[in-house]
Amino acid sequence: MGMKDELDTKSQPVQAEPKVKDKEVSAPEDVEALDEMEIDKKRHLNVVFIGHVDAGKSTTGGQILFLSGQVDDRTIQKYEKEAKDKSRESWYMAYIMDTNEEERIKGKTVEVGRAHFETETTRFTILDAPGHKSYVPNMISGAAQADIGVLVISARKGEFETGYERGGQTREHVQLAKTLGVAKLLVVVNKMDDHTVNWSKERYDEIESKMTPFLRSSGYNVKKDVQFLPISGLVGTNMKTRVDKSTCPWWNGPCLFEALDSVEVPLRDPKGPFRMPIIDKFKDMGTVVMGKVESGSVREGDSLLVMPNKAQVKVLAVYCDENKVRCAGPGENLRVRLSGIEEEDILSGFVLSSVVKSIAAVTEFTAQLQILELLENAIFTAGYKAVLHIHSVVEECEIVELLQQIDPKTKKPMKKKVLFVKNGAVVVCRIQVNNLICIEKFSDFPQLGRFTLRTEGKTVAVGKVTDLSSSSSA
Ligand code: GTP
Ligand code: MG
């Protein structure tokens, strides 16, 4: 199982167990090792595949690996046979990403699958998130590592509708992705080959026109940050090359590889203060920590701090994917070998930080929250308890004071005093946690300043850190 959702109140301050367990999908044929030069030349983007259960995320991810030459025909034939034996004929492409037996039997992704491929300009790490609502915490861990998202939507009759309904994961995933810092979305309208769709322009337009206002209300600038395109993940149409006019006469836009290639994301500052939230750690000739660099760069020999415990450490080695590198910048998923700290003294949620401009550690902060859907009968007021998910931190928290309610129309604070709010409200409040956590103001480091609140396994609110309390110990 992937990341654990709720905290046991009796347990350690921060979850000591690695919360995020991804499965690395290594292509059967050895992918050539990248040398350092190449790493510097191409940009690197993490792309998370999100969307409702069975939309075709794993199939599309698998097809990408196949089309980029990382899976040979023999392996595909083997998967075809295995899928057939499990009476899941059409699932063979998904087997490239779904490597666990449980996933293959049930046809559902559980753990975030991870794989790599390249286009002209970019090295991509694919994070294939599960769509099933039981695994939303795993989806959150995948989306928290991503720069851009591919939202997969099934065009098949009835499937788009179920995904889009209240309680469907299309909505929840979009809202989570936005909050977790997924800046751009490619919305792929999938299963265009299905007999209920048959590359119908009407169906495609219907989905685009229903999704657009929803994406806008979730905070995406649809013109700038969102691109729609039709594909068939199963057949591989409009993916590596543009769809043929004989199949789809009305599409004049790009194929998926082109769209991925040309996505522009704001460059993170490689010279900024170093920040890498730790998602996992283990012992291996020293202490190795894993995480994604959110700001700055790291180099062999650097002196850094592990926060919030202010432990001084030295960088012995840096690994990017499977390769040892001398230096790595923002956006990279790394393993960093450290001296000066024991593995037991690190918990996931800690942050590897520069010494000079170190990250703050706080037990209280101010945030602007958007309430999504509270549990039945619950009211959101001072004393409300939830589980806070912010970068790799999972902590029980309590709302200590509601400060202001924001008028959704004018986006300005409302005058009257606010004691409680309901679903859909936007509210500024103070939030307290029991243990020191390392976070940032959203305006300084968006990736370290946006979060979700969950109760009983349901996301009840998404928010941004607006102020760190003055009791900061850093
Ligand atoms: P979860 O991981 O459980 O959230 O599902 P998923 O989004 O990864 O979906 P998956 O790739 O496992 O595919 C689900 C089903 O949809 C399988 O039967 C696929 O064969 C089918 N499917 C996926 N893409 C296409 C497509 O482009 N066309 C058609 N006809 N079927 C597809
Ligand atoms: Mg899947």
TrEMBL record:
Molecular function via GO: GTP binding; GTPase activity; translation elongation factor activity
Residue span of region Disordered: 1-28
Keywords annotated in UniProt: Elongation factor, GTP-binding, Methylation, Nucleotide-binding, Protein biosynthesis
UniProt xrefs under SUPFAM superfamilies: EF-Tu/eEF-1alpha/eIF2-gamma C-terminal domain, P-loop containing nucleoside triphosphate hydrolases, Translation proteins
InterPro entries found in the cross-reference section: EFTu-like_2, G_TR_CS, GTP-eEF1A_C, P-loop_NTPase, T_Tr_GTP-bd_dom, TRAFAC_GTPase_members, Transl_B-barrel_sf, Transl_elong_EF1A/Init_IF2_C
Gene3D superfamilies assigned to the protein according to its UniProt record, in alphabetical order: P-loop containing nucleotide triphosphate hydrolases, Translation factors
Keyword Phosphoprotein set for record: no
Keyword GTP-binding: yes
Pfam family, one: GTP-eEF1A_C
Domain Tr-type G, first and last residues per copy: 42-271
Coiled coil residues, start to end: none
Family affiliation: Belongs to the TRAFAC class translation factor GTPase superfamily. Classic translation factor GTPase family. EF-Tu/EF-1A subfamily.
Biological function: This protein promotes the GTP-dependent binding of aminoacyl-tRNA to the A-site of ribosomes during protein biosynthesis.
Full protein name: Translation elongation factor EF1A/initiation factor IF2gamma family protein isoform 4
Organism: Theobroma cacao
